[in-house]
Specification:
Layout (H helix, E strand, L loop, with lengths): L2 H27 L4 E4 L2 H24 L12 H25 L8 E3 L16 H16 L5 H38 L9
Antiparallel strand pairs: 1-2
């Protein structure tokens, strides 16, 4: 099989895996009452940036010739490394959803029964869902041998992260106060022991 075709199949399988992981959790949380939702329009714009970089641009690369001029030579090592990073991303994504349970939401929301989760992967980082998305974006950059579609995920999700993380942490402080302050003091944001 051609390496480029393999990269397209693996990318598509990763995106389908992401959707299959999220779907049951999305259905479950729809029944939860939201007591605090912030920045709805801003959230829509930021989520659109992320979707563009992690979904739409690589989909156009995989299904059309639109970005073919920006393809570059590709190696089996890149394919293997990208696949491994994507698999790690999906594992962390699943684990994060499982640990959050009904406390999860796509946008900045606090549920009626919201709890501060500090166990599981949350014992090590405050935002492992973002860590999973950054791993996905990194996997895409390695897996897709294209100067536009490859790094599009890092840019798209990077925009969402840069303009959302401060507001999310402020919301958590408003909701959980000193409990969140203490949790923040002992955990990293994204990478255990680093950041």
């Amino acid at each position: 099989m051609n390496l480029l075709v393999a990269a397209k199949i693996i990318w598509a399988a990763g995106v389908i895996g992401w959707y299959l992981i999220r779907l049951p959790f999305e259905r479950r949380v729809k029944r939860e009452r939201v007591v605090d939702a912030r920045h709805r329009v801003r959230e829509l714009v930021l989520l659109s940036c992320s979707t563009l970089g992690l979904g739409i641009i690589p989909l156009l690369w995989a299904t059309s010739r639109l970005f073919n001029a920006y393809n570059y030579p590709y190696s089996p090592f890149q394919l293997a490394l990208g696949t491994l990073i994507f698999a790690a991303s999906l594992w962390l994504f699943r684990r994060t959803h499982k640990d959050l349970g009904r406390n999860w939401s796509v946008t900045l929301e606090i549920k009626d029964t919201h709890k501060l989760i500090t166990e599981g992967v949350y014992r090590y980082v405050r935002h492992p869902m973002y860590s999973a998305f950054f791993l996905w974006a990194l996997a895409q950059a390695v897996l897709i041998p294209n100067l536009v579609a490859g790094p599009a995920g890092l840019i798209g999700f990077g925009i969402l992260y840069a303009f959302r993380i401060g507001r999310e942490e402020a919301m958590m402080l408003d909701t959980f106060g000193d409990q969140y302050r203490a949790y923040s003091a002992r955990t990293a944001r994204l990478v255990p022991g680093l950041y």
